[in-house]
Write a structure and sequence with these properties.
- The chain is α/β, with parallel strands linked by helices and about 600 residues long.
- The protein has helices at about 20-35, 70-85, 110-120, 130-140, 145-155, 170-175, 180-200, 210-215, 220-230, 280-285, 325-335, 370-380, 400-405, 420-425, 560; strands at about 45-50, 90-95, 100, 105, 125, 235-240, 250-255, 290-295, 340-345, 385-390, 405-410, 480-490, 500-510, 515-525, 535-545, 550-555, 565, 570, 575-580.
- It has a six-stranded mixed β-sheet with strand order 6-11-10-9-7-8, sandwiched between helices. A three-stranded parallel β-sheet has the order 1-2-5.
Length: about 600
């Protein structure tokens, strides 16, 4: 769960909400492993990571303790993993680096055996994280040496050593000496062999290179990458309907910013065989119909850019004041244009896994780095219509931009076809319909700021007079307008084994076709254990032509209504439940 955006690995996550992450996670696993339990040679085995409570670390720093009660872990952090096991039948689980209640995950019997195998019925294998077993010795200090680390991790249920092998290499001698029971080793070996049988590796040990060459970056997959990018873009602001830009009214377009000309696809990536930057996407779409000018404006970091920089240990930031000349040049570029598109955010050097003190990636601020805010201010000061396009792996506290820039788009890391999709959205060939999977806070001082907070966590701050975020979970605008009405239930009451259908009419009341996402939230009014003010229980994305209306239906089941009672048992308590539907978490009926 993306619960602390200071954490550099936020870029790898699906969002802050347990239900959303469970649905996305199940879809990803089913896509990787294929439609059947036995995995054919054109699919691969999925590993669900990082188990568990790794993503809201103390101080927002990688591998720090996850200081949470069992209730919080079960209500939130376990939800996607349970779905990965029980619904998607993931073949592997990766233990996380962090500790929970003083016990590192790699030696946590409760986590790896009691919950995972006994309670959820997991039948796959558990892998360590890279170097995670060594951390038992040199970071957590719960083992005196590699041999002890091997004994404790194997006993807890770690079947596979994802590292240089130095820890589990001690197992052979320890079995021979009797320090490790051979039956314990047999269990781990059996789980690895079971995974290989499930993959069919004993019958077909090799992949088909001709098939791999045929599908890799095939036209079909390029189209899918483009569609994913188109649907992911979120329109955050559009004062005066500045967007979409009308090419018939533009003679010169300024594309400015440190993220405009480079490809940014996030960490743990490789350079795709085909890729399009936002600058190139705009040039390709505009062609000869308008002149496209470019100016970098400022740098986020020095040195290599893009996915390659993710591997570089040192992150060099430009010296203060060193960007004055480049910002001045960008201002001159903007003055020559009819509109300025400013592409800013973060990059793979500033938003990444901090795997050591020499390779950092977590932040203590969510503000735009370096001179980017100064660049935006300078462009706004020209009086030219300005659009800000964000490329980044975490939400950012863009307070000035949110107040002064008329149009803002969030792209995250859009993948290899991102530039094409960005241009299509900017010029109206595609109507953006994406929604925020994570809250945008006003500052790090407001963290944690996830929408599904408890009722007591609603007090405003004295210096800003609010607790509301810049942009809430589930938020996203469109170039058209939508109306939600006639919210109704097939049955206003159900028994503990019954269900009901929630229906709502969604109408496109604007002049363009577009996508809207109907979001279902619920809240139990009275319960023995405090409940979040609201929690996501369903979502449906619908495409509607101008004037078209559709009825969106959700099934509301006892499972969705269930809570953990005071004794940690999953129950459905009698009582009343608010059922809310709307286009975002802060706009429901």
């Amino acid at each position: 769960l993306a619960r602390d955006p200071r954490w550099g690995r936020t870029e790898e996550l699906y969002g802050e909400d347990p239900y959303l992450v469970s649905r996305t996670g199940v879809a990803a696993i089913e896509g990787l492993q294929g439609p059947n339990y036995m995995i054919d040679r054109h699919h691969v085995m999925a590993t669900a990571k990082h188990y568990a409570a790794h993503s809201e670390p103390e101080g927002g720093t990688n591998t720090a303790p996850g200081n949470f009660s069992e209730r919080i872990i079960r209500e939130s952090f376990f939800v996607p993993f349970r779905a990965a096991v029980e619904e998607a039948h993931t073949g592997s689980i990766m233990a996380s680096y962090n500790e929970i209640n003083g016990i590192p995950s790699h030696v946590n019997h409760w986590l790896l055996d009691t919950i995972l195998r006994k309670e959820w019925g997991f039948d796959g294998y558990v892998t360590s994280d890279g170097g995670g077993l060594q951390m038992l010795v040199n970071v957590h200090h719960v083992a005196a040496d590699n041999a002890q680390a091997a004994r404790e991790a194997l006993a807890a249920g770690v079947d596979y050593d994802l590292s240089d092998g130095s820890v589990y290499r001690t197992i052979v001698d320890q079995v021979k000496s009797g320090a490790i029971p051979e039956a314990e080793l047999d269990k781990a070996v059996a789980r690895i062999l079971y995974a290989k049988f499930r993959l069919g590796l004993f019958d077909h040990p090799y992949v088909d290179p001709d098939y791999a060459a045929k599908i890799t970056n095939s036209p079909e997959h390029q189209k899918l990458a483009l569609r994913a990018a188109q649907e992911a873009i979120v329109l955050l602001k559009n004062d005066g309907n500045l967007l979409p830009l009308d090419l018939n009214k533009l003679k010169t377009i300024a594309v400015i910013g440190p993220n405009a000309a480079d490809i940014h696809i996030g960490g743990y990536s490789r350079e795709p065989a085909h890729s399009v930057s936002i600058l190139q996407g705009i040039r390709d779409l505009v062609g000869s119909r308008a002149k496209v000018l470019y100016s970098e404006g400022c740098k986020i970091t020095e040195g290599r850019q893009g996915w390659r920089a993710w591997y570089d240990d040192e992150v060099k930031f430009p010296a203060p004041g060193s960007q004055v000349a480049s910002i001045k040049a960008a201002v001159e570029t903007a003055r020559q244009a009819d509109v300025a598109i400013v592409v800013v955010g973060e990059n793979e050097s500033t938003n990444r896994e901090a795997w050591s003190e020499k390779h950092l990636g977590d932040r203590d601020s969510l503000d735009l780095l370096g001179a980017q805010k100064d660049l935006i201010k300078a462009i706004v000061a020209t009086g030219k219509p300005t659009v800000v396009f964000l490329i980044n792996g975490r939400p950012l506290s863009i307070n000035y931009t949110a107040e002064h820039v008329p149009a803002i788009l969030e792209g995250w890391y859009l993948g290899q076809e991102g530039g094409t999709a960005a241009a299509q959205v900017l010029f109206g060939d595609v109507n953006p319909g994406g929604k925020l999977p994570i809250t945008f806070p006003r500052s790090v001082g407001m963290l944690p700021d996830y929408y599904d907070h408890k009722p007591s966590a609603d007090r405003s701050y004295v210096d800003v007079g609010t607790r509301k975020p810049l942009f809430p979970f589930g938020y996203g605008l469109s170039y058209t307008t939508f109306k939600f009405d006639n919210l109704r239930l097939d049955s206003p009451a159900i028994g503990q084994y019954g269900s009901t259908t929630v229906r709502v009419d969604v109408s496109n009341t604007g002049t363009r076709e577009g996508d809207e996402v109907a979001e279902l939230y619920i809240h139990q009014n009275v319960a023995m254990v405090t409940q979040p003010v609201m929690r996501l229980a369903g979502f449906r994305r619908v495409h509607l032509m101008s004037g078209e209306k559709a009825t969106v239906a959700f099934e509301l089941t006892p499972e969705l209504l269930s809570i953990l009672d005071i004794n940690m048992h999953r129950v459905v308590e009698p009582g009343t439940v608010d059922v809310m539907v709307g286009p975002s978490s802060d706009n429901t009926q």
